[in-house]
Design brief:
Layout lengths: L1 H19 L7 E3 L2 H5 L6 E4 L3 E3 L15 E3 L4 E5 L4 E4 L3 E3 L2 E8 L3 E2 L2 E4 L11 E4 L2 E2 L2 E5 L9 E5 L2 E3 L5 E5 L2 E2 L3 E4 L7 E5 L2 E3 L2 E5 L2 E2 L3 E3 L11 E3 L2 E4 L8 E4 L2 E2 L3 E2 L3 E3 L2 E4 L15 E4 L2 E2 L3 E2 L3 E3 L2 E4 L10 E4 L2 E2 L2 E4 L2 E3 L2 E4 L5 E3 L2 E2 L2 E4 L10 E5 L10 E2 L1 E4 L7 E5 L2 H4 L4 E2 H6 L3 E4 L1 H6 L1 H10 L22 E5 L2 E5 L18 E2 L36 E2 L15 H11 L8
Length: 574
């Protein structure tokens, strides 16, 4: 029933894409700040010169949301004291570089103060930001007059999105420093992210945060739900069809909490979030990401996420974390974990991940139980069958627990020793030499029967999801690189591009996913099922030197597959 419902929605969306397609030739040129501020909210524009803006488009007591298409055309908008847009609706912003400096005492991002694109109006009505770079430094100072329990957001692109609103980032980069200053966090709540501070639904693919994201204040004041992350500070703040999906992304920036900190996400969810599970989704999903940045928090720190609110056996409150690589240094005062600091759900999936991160106490007074594979309270993860094949380096032997619950009087059974997790294949302790040898890359791929990790032996010291690295195969008792993978690519749907086979540019840290298009949904494999643009144009296949690309076939079958991903309707398991 759910799949039938999804297909019906998909067909409708295919037709809508056919109707609303806009070509670049129809775009109106913008060459001055005055022309930019005079744009029609639903127009199609292309930037034809570098410009400086000192006021946001649509700014006013009731901001006007931009819902059209804006092509930066490789040019730069330099911001001076205000974001580019006051509000983004269901807009498409692409090929734009932002530079400059913004300091604000309210929610703020370099691209937009807020986002009002209601994602569940048509299940994919988020703002789309594609191939954009932010170089602007953005600072938010929460005023002392902030109301109790108010929420504040600062991000490289978007500050604080509206309730049930979302944004999707494709091949974007944040290089700006993102800073939040707050002296009364015990009453108000702030979130900082390299891409967005607060965004109910957040999607990112093939993107990177290079900027430092930091709380500039006294940790003694961090008593509320506040945090910082490389991509988004807070998701699913409103109880509805809200979710987070981050795939093939990199965080190389330094992250400093508040209370929560993560390489990609600080805090997600709330008690009665319903997400989109009627359409087979996982609420919080992280595939094929790389963290190399240092992470610090007062309370919950994780290489992927600080805190994921997931509850018991509720399908609408789970995370799915697979084929991620975490390094850097992770420190906190309470929970310090390689992937997720804290979460509760026996439905959570944590498989095929690698960590060679360094862990340390932030202060000598830090909790003795802090080094843990996963912090929890009310969930007994011995009942979980999807915590398998994770590998971590722990040469100092500091990890004592697989999971740890603070309240011994109520949840003593949930204090599961790491030795039990090792015996039951939840986690394996390895050495740096094992990671460098190709052994772990091969073992993970063999367990998954999917080629999720690559590794150029002699160059890559760890497995990596980057397709710029080489395939690993077994050679007797050893491992070597080969031109052909032994295992199948991911069986996932990519809707960010149209069905056309091309070669994509890559960099040493880029994680461009391999895509094979075909005429029928069951024959289409790609790297990620969740991102789309208003007018798809091309497909990026595997890096040069790898075979496996098929000739493209354009037709309704592919269109339906594309929009299935756009609506985020298919949860493909490895």
């Amino acid at each position: 029933m759910r799949k039938t419902f999804s297909i019906i929605i998909s067909v409708l969306m295919v037709l809508s894409l056919c109707v609303v397609g806009i070509s670049a030739d129809d775009a109106t040129k913008v060459t001055t700040a005055a022309e930019f501020l005079a744009m029609q909210a639903d127009g199609n524009y292309i930037l034809d010169a570098d410009i400086v803006v000192t006021a946001s488009y649509g700014a006013g007591e009731t901001p006007t949301a931009f819902v059209g298409t804006f092509d930066g055309n490789g040019h730069t908008i330099t911001v001076s004291g205000a974001p580019v847009f006051a509000d983004l609706g269901k807009a498409v912003i692409k090929n734009l570089t932002i530079d400059g400096t913004i300091e604000s005492d309210t929610n703020v991002g370099a691209l937009a103060t807020t986002c009002s694109a209601k994602i569940f109006d048509e299940f994919s009505d988020y703002a789309v930001i594609e191939k954009c770079v932010n170089k602007a430094n953005v600072t938010m100072t929460v005023p002392d007059t902030a109301e109790k329990d108010s929420y504040w957001g600062v991000g490289g692109f978007i500050g604080k999105a509206g309730a049930d609103c979302g944004a999707m980032f494709v091949e974007c980069v944040n290089e700006g420093a993102i800073t939040v200053k707050c002296t009364k966090t015990e009453s108000c709540r702030f979130y900082a992210g390299g891409f967005a501070g607060i965004c109910d639904t957040f999607l990112a693919r093939n993107s990177e945060n290079k900027g430092d994201v930091k709380f500039d204040g006294d940790y003694a004041n961090c008593l509320g739900q506040d945090g910082s992350a490389g991509f988004v500070g807070r998701v699913a703040m409103t109880a509805n069809f809200n979710f987070c999906n981050i795939e093939y992304c990199v965080n190389s920036g330094t992250i400093k909490g508040g209370r929560y900190a993560g390489g990609f996400l600080a805090y997600s969810g709330l008690g009665n979030n319903t997400c989109q599970y009627l359409m087979d989704n996982t609420p919080y999903r992280f595939f094929g990401n790389i963290n190399t940045g240092d992470i610090e928090a007062k309370g919950w720190a994780g290489g992927i996420a600080g805190y994921c609110y997931c509850n018991g056996t509720n399908d609408a409150q789970t995370f799915d974390i697979e084929f991620n690589l975490v390094s850097g240094k992770i420190v906190s005062d309470k929970w310090c974990a390689p992937f997720v600091g804290y979460s509760n759900s026996t439905k959570n999936t944590l498989m095929y991940n690698v960590s060679n991160a360094e862990f340390a106490k932030r202060t000598e007074e830090a909790a003795t139980f802090m080094f843990v594979f996963l912090g929890c309270s009310s969930s007994n993860y011995k009942d979980n069958t999807t915590f398998l094949h994770n590998y971590i380096v722990d040469e100092a032997g500091i990890f004592k627990y697989l999971t740890y619950a603070e309240d011994e009087s109520k949840y003593a059974a949930n204090r599961i020793e790491l030795a039990w997790g090792i015996d039951n294949n939840y986690v394996t302790i390895v050495t740096p030499a094992q990671l460098a040898s190709g052994e772990i890359t091969y073992k993970i791929n063999a367990a998954a029967q999917k080629n999720g990790f690559n590794q150029t032996l002699g160059t890559d010291q760890t497995p990596t999801p980057a397709v710029t690295s080489s395939y690993v195969v077994k050679d007797g008792n050893n491992y070597k690189n080969a031109a052909t993978a032994e295992f199948d690519p991911f069986d996932l749907i990519d809707i960010t591009k149209a069905p056309e086979t091309t070669k994509g540019e890559t960099t040493a840290k880029a994680t461009t996913a391999e895509v094979t298009t075909a005429a029928a949904p069951t024959e289409t494999t790609a790297a990620a099922p969740t991102e789309t643009t208003a007018a798809p144009t091309d497909v990026t296949t595997a890096a040069t030197g790898k075979d496996g690309g098929c000739k493209s076939v354009i037709g309704i079958g592919v269109a339906i597959v594309a929009v299935l991903g756009a609506a985020y309707v298919s949860k493909k398991k490895f």
